[in-house]
Amino acid sequence: MMQSTFPLLSLAIWLPIAFGILVLAFGRDNNPGLARRVSLIGSIASFLVTLPLIQHFDNAAHGMQFVEKTPWIGRFNIFYSLGIDGISLWFVPLTALITILVVIAGWEVIEKKVSQYMGAFLILSGLMIGVFCALDGMLFYVFFEATLIPMFIIIGVWGGANRVYAAVKFFLYTFFGSLLMLVALIYLYFKSHGSFDILAWHQLPLPMSAQILVFLSFLMAFAVKVPMWPVHTWLPDAHVEAPTGGSVVLAAIMLKLGGYGFLRFSLPITPDASHYLAPLIITISLIAVIYIGLVALVQADMKKLVAYSSIAHMGFVTLGFFLFNDMAVQGGIAQMISHGFVSGAMFLCIGVLYDRMHSRQIADYGGVVNTMPRFAALFVLFSLANAGLPATSGFIGEFMVILGSVQYNFWIGLLAATALILGAAYSLYLVKRVIFGDIGNAQVAQLKDLNKREFFMLGVLAIAVIAMGLYPAPFTDAMQTSVSDLLKHVAISKAN
Asked: Residue 65 has what DSSP assignment?
């Protein structure tokens, strides 16, 4: 482990939280402009402090980097312990970048309780970065659970007509799943003679029966968060009712907390159970990829369509993780990063249309390209990336997972590949009905194209989607050593 001389990770976590508290303290509704400006400065500063992590990250180094470790609750041997490896590296700047775009997206749209809205997102950003950096089990749990509070408030206060129902459903699903994880963390604490060190847990020689129970406990927490079929039903409700910013953060970052949990906890702590139960996870993942893809096809609400497509794409991620080969696991991580860009962009696009028409129904649109050509070009790009078009980021992860699937089993690879057909079907269906054709009605005829603010936030994501699609090396090179070490550890444990 490489000890950090400067607390970059702490800065990445606590700077947005500090700015969030500042906005809440000084931002009053009689001066919403100040709250917006302070939030934007805070989100940009938070993003800038994550850039040295990429610059100074050593792709060839084994173990954790930028490590910070300080006693926190001494009586229970709980440490404030942080560090990142190639698996978690890119999620830190991704979270910070998405937060900037969310602040910009809500700039003119949010008119009431502006300081509370912006403050909630800044605090949420810091907490999510904390999840990706935590190396202490209890610290991880605190960050993991604390993310529920700002998101619960965001959906419940600024959401749609059924916002309270959606917020409560989101909270109950994710909270109850996490309670079983807490039981597993306490069990591991006693098995490791009073340590919450996650890396020490990776070396614990647990019997098979214990591994299966611990694996299932983690599965409940992470499966709900991803979300995997059949515990996915909270997500479409949450997306439909959430404000645009809430949907963007939920899809781009919060779903990734579950996928990340599998790599940091399930696979290394319970390797034998992971192999034993892999067929179950692969089956559930394939159901998500195919069945949920078909469900997406019949949606009349744009947000619901993209929400279901998110579940299908995350099914690809969990499929890749449990095939136990480098190509598939790296593909799963690349898919998570790409999905952060693409799904975030799709929800921002839907938000742009909703701000103008106050409708998310596909039937209320048609011929948008005639009145919003710049918007239409970007919407088509993101939709094609969502379908996995080569030269976009969406292709990289899906292609690697399919290659890894074929390597594992041809028929699993064949079933996984159907996702590309279904992805193209629902993405092109959306584009055809909303963007192309004759102008659908008088409201569409009066639409105005993107303003500078909207063009900037979508343009940033368009550059990210194309850049990752054309040159994925910075992403895949960073994760290669960490993924290889993880798979060696899982393979050795199985051999023993």
From this structure: E
CA angle 399, 337, 10 (to 5 degrees): 150
- Residue 193 falls in which region: left (phi positive, over 0), alpha (psi -120 to 50) or beta: left
Q: What is the pTM of this model?
A: 0.89
Task: Tell me which residue has tokens 């497509």.
Answer: 309
Q: Which two tokens stand for residue 47?
A: 């993003």
| Ranges 4-13, 92-101, 375-384: which has the least confidence | 4-13
Which two structure tokens, joined as six digits, stand for 207?
Answer: 């019997």
Query: What one-character DSSP code corresponds to residue 266?
Result: I
pLDDT digits (tens, 9 = 90+) for 197-254: 888 888 888 888 888 988 988 888 888 888 888 877 777 878 888 888 888 888 888 8
Identify the burial level of 161 via C-beta atoms within 10 angstroms of its C-beta, where 0-12 means exposed, 13-18 middle and 19 or more buried.
exposed
Enter the tokens of residue 58: 């050593």
Summarize the confidence of residues 449-473 as an average pLDDT: 89
Tens digit of pLDDT for each residue in 25-75?
A: 876 666 777 788 888 898 899 999 998 888 888 888 888 888 888 888 777
Rounded Cα distance, 96 and 116, in Å: 19
Cα–Cα distance for residue pair 318/301, rounded to 1 Å = 26
Strands 78-84 and 65-73: antiparallel
Residue holding tokens 């609400």? 301
Closest by Cα among 458, 254, 455, 465 to 342: 465
Nearest Cα residue to 23 out of 153, 115, 120, 125: 115
Please tell me whether residue 301 adopts helix, strand or coil conformation. strand
Give the containing element (helix H, strand E) for 278. Answer: helix 271-297
> Residues 6 or more apart from 264 whose CB is under 8 A from it?
87, 88, 140, 198
Estimate the crossing angle of helix 163-191 against helix 208-225, to 10 degrees: 160
Q: Average pLDDT in the 15-23 region? A: 90
What is the DSSP secondary structure assignment for residue 217, as one 8-state letter? H
Q: Which run of H or E residues covers position 460?
A: helix 452-470
| Cβ 293 vs Cβ 422: under 8 Å | yes
Tokens describing residue 399: 């292609």
- Cα–Cα separations (whole angstroms), residue 186 to 78, 204, 240, 313, 423: 12, 14, 36, 32, 41
C-alpha separations of 150 from 102, 117, 146, 235, 444 in Å: 14, 9, 8, 16, 35
Query: What phi and psi, each to the nearest 5 degrees, are found at residue 361?
Result: -75, 125
Whole-angstrom CA distances from 475 to 139, 149, 331 are 27, 31, 10
DSSP 228: P
The β-bridge partners of 69 are 81
Q: Do 314 and 446 meet the contact criterion of CB atoms below 8 Å apart?
A: no
Cross-strand partners of 65: 84
Rounded-to-integer distance, Cα 209 and Cα 201, Å: 16
Distance CA 247, CA 151 (A): 10
